[in-house]
Amino acid sequence: MATMQDVARRAGVSVSTVSYVLTGARPISQATRAKVLSAMAELDYQPNAMARGLASRRSRILGLLMPMDERGLGATETAFVTGAAAAASAAGYHLVLSPIGAGEVDELRRLASQRMLDGALLMEVQLDDPRVDVLRELSVPLVLIGRTADTTGLSYVDIDFDRTVRDAVDHLVRLGHRRIVYVNHSPATIAHGYGPALRTRDAFVAAMSGHGLDPLMIAAEDSAAGGRDALSEAFDRAPDLSAVLAMNESAVFGILGELARRGLAVPGDVSVVSMVTSPQVAELATPALTAMTSPGSALGRIAVETLLRHIDADSGEIYQQLLPCVLEVRGSSGPPGTAGGAAGDGPARPTPGRT
Amino acid sequence: MATMQDVARRAGVSVSTVSYVLTGARPISQATRAKVLSAMAELDYQPNAMARGLASRRSRILGLLMPMDERGLGATETAFVTGAAAAASAAGYHLVLSPIGAGEVDELRRLASQRMLDGALLMEVQLDDPRVDVLRELSVPLVLIGRTADTTGLSYVDIDFDRTVRDAVDHLVRLGHRRIVYVNHSPATIAHGYGPALRTRDAFVAAMSGHGLDPLMIAAEDSAAGGRDALSEAFDRAPDLSAVLAMNESAVFGILGELARRGLAVPGDVSVVSMVTSPQVAELATPALTAMTSPGSALGRIAVETLLRHIDADSGEIYQQLLPCVLEVRGSSGPPGTAGGAAGDGPARPTPGRT
DNA sequence: ACCGATTGTCGAAGCGCTTCGACTAAGCGT
DNA sequence: ACGCTTAGTCGAAGCGCTTCGACAATCGGT
């Protein structure tokens, strides 16, 4: 392992000069810079991260605090991660993921108070997230992915649920649907104040009302069984329903199963649109699901850029940004009342869309 | 931020003594240790990771190199990660995940040659994985999750595919099935030499032969459509088939869809068993899938323990370990030829055009 | 009672880098 | 011509920790 000493010696300059070449903290002449760079290349020099971190009090590490619940990560999350990692890498930072949720605050405190993190991105943010307090206390810059209840003084990036729901409803209404039911997360989740569930609920009411339609929402457990039950309830309360908008990725499969059991065709009898769903999951269903695809990778990039802005210009300035999901029409939505016909991948009135 | 100086001063000892208390590198009397510890507590002291890393040439960071493909992470992977993180944390190490696949070798080289990693765990190992070469060259200890073609001198932990396939086949045979078809990954995947596909193929042949049965394998594309096609092919080649064993999580949903389309009940007409599938995914199907559940969390723990053994006793000793998936019987498997009656969720059979 | 080993502690020398102050040599306006 | 800023470089002082050698004190064993 070559050190900076070696490079300096070989280039015939002092170590501080080498350092300045690397960091750009002071002007260096073209000639010197060239000598230094070629010495580095010849020695295959790589700065030692620890030494650099110690001296500069900057680790060049960004933490991505990502709870890993049992149910795995959707493609949305992985897209987010890769987007974020690419952005970090481009800026000369490392992005390290740590499976730290609102529960494991201790581990976070360890990480942060050892001064390992220059900043942090929080995923799966709770309305009242203890991780925020820990990081603030240790004055580690942070950016939320999602939103806490009180976002004053906090930067975040999040999905624009209002816009997303509105676009989804518009899609169905434009196809001719009037009776649309919204299958949300479970009552418990809603009662617990889970942001996306609340925001989409309100957005759904607003969007439907805007079209002069009656907004019917049903809360479903996050499981296939929950979806089946939700669909039954939906038919009880609105026998004439022709479209389902589902927030709940697990329930969607139950909904489809129950629809099939009742001998109803998708989208001939009932159209189904899934929210915040990755293309990969959408393709699992038969027919493939028309869905609102989340802007995972863009969200990741923006989050990192925002965090970096905080880090190296730590004015108290804050940035709050929302990105909508984009509609991708696949086989599960079509005009109402065309049972037997429009099935499959049929011409469901293509809509421009894609990330 | 309190430093070690502060602690030493407050405890009335030298810094080296404080250090020895922390690292245990030399014996310290009970009395002194107590003084030091209480000084630490009072000052809320946390050692600075960078300084420690620089001085000791050990970062106490383990890298988990986890490719993040577009399709997201299964529950198996997340269980692995949490298991690994817990084990690392218990040993005083940090586990950082880096979305580094066989493609992004440069990023890995950066990470490793900056001496940031004390060791690495490689997920999604390819038969000939360039990451292994990079790490060896930089002499970073590593443990594979999975296996390369040549594992001499390499430690790994992996799923015991032989045992897993055998258990799955035994389950079906014991239920009375004779005609069992194995739906593997795609021909391309197999041709490319993907380990699990090859190993399960061979294990399937062995297991079936052991029962005096004819081993029929079909390679399916990794998609719902691939599953549908595979099932059609299966019926062409074995009209009397009564059970499907599927390796391919994406294809399973297509298989179920096609079964429903043909008006065949699961498990009344055909039993379906899924391999290496998480409970969460298994529950998505209707009926829920009987599946071989992978030992994700245990795998993670063992991998970390193995890696640590390498790190702090770097004899050339190697460890190679296999863990089987365990059978979890749900609704999709039952005795053959009991259409209408069988176990599971009951009459899941009518209705062309489900899912 | 004396030796060698062990236990317990300290001071000091780094680990490989950044960064501050100092210095030289130009370049500028006046 | 004068001081003054700016570009370009160097030496040295750390950053907060680990670890080595030294040394005093204690402890059997004979």
TrEMBL record, chains A, B:
<dbReference type="InterPro" id="IPR028082">
    <property type="entry name" value="Peripla_BP_I"/>
</dbReference>
<feature type="region of interest" description="Disordered">
    <location>
        <begin position="333"/>
        <end position="355"/>
    </location>
</feature>
<feature type="domain" description="HTH cro/C1-type">
    <location>
        <begin position="3"/>
        <end position="46"/>
    </location>
</feature>
<protein>
    <submittedName>
        <fullName>LacI family transcriptional regulator</fullName>
    </submittedName>
</protein>
<dbReference type="InterPro" id="IPR046335">
    <property type="entry name" value="LacI/GalR-like_sensor"/>
</dbReference>
<dbReference type="Pfam" id="PF00356">
    <property type="entry name" value="LacI"/>
</dbReference>
<keyword id="KW-0804">Transcription</keyword>
<dbReference type="Pfam" id="PF13377">
    <property type="entry name" value="Peripla_BP_3"/>
</dbReference>
<feature type="domain" description="HTH lacI-type">
    <location>
        <begin position="2"/>
        <end position="56"/>
    </location>
</feature>
<keyword id="KW-0238">DNA-binding</keyword>
<dbReference type="InterPro" id="IPR001387">
    <property type="entry name" value="Cro/C1-type_HTH"/>
</dbReference>
<dbReference type="InterPro" id="IPR010982">
    <property type="entry name" value="Lambda_DNA-bd_dom_sf"/>
</dbReference>
<keyword id="KW-0805">Transcription regulation</keyword>
<dbReference type="InterPro" id="IPR000843">
    <property type="entry name" value="HTH_LacI"/>
</dbReference>
<feature type="compositionally biased region" description="Low complexity">
    <location>
        <begin position="345"/>
        <end position="355"/>
    </location>
</feature>
